[in-house]
Amino acid sequence: xxxxxxxxxxxxxxxxxxxxxxxxxxxxxxxxxxxxxxxxxxxxxxxxxxxxxxxxxxxxxxxxxxxxxxxxxxxxxxxxxxxxxxxxxxxxxxxxxxxxxxxxxxxxxxxxxxxxxxx
Length: 119
Description:
The N and C termini lie far apart (43 Å). The chain has helices at 6-10, 35-45, 63-77, 85-88, 95-106, and strands at residues 17-21, 26-30, 78-80. It is globular. The protein is α+β, with helices and mostly antiparallel strands. α2 (35-45) packs antiparallel against α3 and α3 (63-77) packs across α5. A 3-stranded antiparallel sheet has the order 1-2-3. It has one domain: rbstp2171, CATH 3.30.2220.
């Protein structure tokens, strides 16, 4: 078995993926977030209450914080075009959440259930 190298660790965010955004009838390029970037995103969300079965209780999620976190994830994970958080906030309704969810999936965070909404 080979050893994990520094180069292996640092190239994780170099995995690029093309994502089609129906609302704009165009493609964007996204990448996974680093551990430090994910920490920033989750700091916005704060603690998430869990149901008795251990799954997140979506009824107790602060929607405003969730949207802010997804806008940050979108800004950090968009490679082309590069957009600031403020610019992401100017996108068509629902698009930052769609892109942000895909970026989190690419980062290994979400299961994909949250992104089944069509854009």
